[in-house]
Amino acid sequence: MFLRSVLSVVFTSVVVQQAAAQLCPPGYYSTNGLLPGVPAPPGYYVPTSGATNPTPASPGNYVSTYGATTQSIALAGYYCPVPGMSAAIAAPPGYVAPSSGSSAITPAAAGAYASGFGNAFATPAPAGQYTPISGMSAPLDAVPGYYVPFFGSYYMTPAAAGNYVATNGASSQVPANPGTYAPISGMSATIPAPPGYFASGAGSVSVAPAGLGSIAPGFGNFSAVPAPAGQYAPFIGMAAAIPALPGYFVASSGSSAATAASPGAYVATNGASGQLPVLAGYYTPISGMSAAIPAPPGYFVSSAGSASISPAPIGSFVPNFGSQIATTDPAGRYTPIPGMSGTIGAGDLDNNGIVTQVELNSALTNYWPNSPWLSMTNFGEQCGGKFEFALTNASAWNFSVLVTTNLATTNWDYLGVAYPLYQFEDPAATNGAPQRFYRLRWP
After folding, report:
1. Where exactly are the structural domains of the chain?
2. Taking CA atoms, which of 188, 266, 305, 362 is between 20 and 30 Å from 412?
């Protein structure tokens, strides 16, 4: 009986002690949910009393302290990919966490970039730069020959033909300067117009050749220039003009051909812009002459700019080259035909009224070679191989007799002198001999 009473007292005491135990408050937990509990560790929280286990922070949230009763949401730019995280992770370069409570990150889209850590949004690539792929932490500069005109671009634009881009990071293209051209797209520099060609305006995609009569010297011409006077450009695309040759001239600039000197004029030098009239005493009979011709003896030129010469008139003569006038025959001399360079002595050379043998010989020396009237007549054969003849306008003169059997030959054989009355002998003229021809020569 006493033992039952003691047990009852002990049991009652235990029940009273159990009734006095307290639950773990929020933020703490124990295996039975009663105090003394332990605080929830970082990454976990206990939202209610009497918890036997802590609750892990859900993805997108975190718990940074001990004994937390709530979890914290990850801010924009940060993320919590797994449960039970004690801190949010900053979005790395090239990625963004666009909203709070993110459990994952997103790569920056092409055309934008995310530099540094903790980006909530991507930044559009500025003009002059681009991001060709997603997840980039910095934009790329446009390279020479290309440009990016707008922000948020994911590609470069090549410079159009006629334009160029010389630097990195360009946001616009530049037209080719006059004198240069850009024949294809994507050029980082222009090409100077080569010699013989020009580019007249800005933004040229091609060059034009210098036209006929024009030249484009050197590189980088923005226009052609006329060939100067004295020179000419006969083809298109010439870098230098051609000087006119002697005998030719170019009177004005911009010529594509040289002009031949006119008859009566000449051009003596290269690169002449005009012709010169020939001086009196000289002439140029055809065009394109580089020097004048002096009038030859027997002829003269009385005025400048002549294309022809004049023969000395009958009764006058011209003894020298380059004469401007003819000289009248002196007394005792004569010139029976035009164009004579010297006079012929008359019979009475000393003008005393008597023609001596010496004077006659002198006159006949000029007469016989030039007279068209001397002829043989009354030709006859005498006995003994002798022959005789008469002259129509000469007497008592001894002539040499020449013979040949062929009139076409220039070789005549000398027979002897015909004397005293134009008689001569030809022993070879026998019966049966070939026909023979005779002529006279004086002396």
Report:
1. 21-54, 275-369, 376-441
2. 362
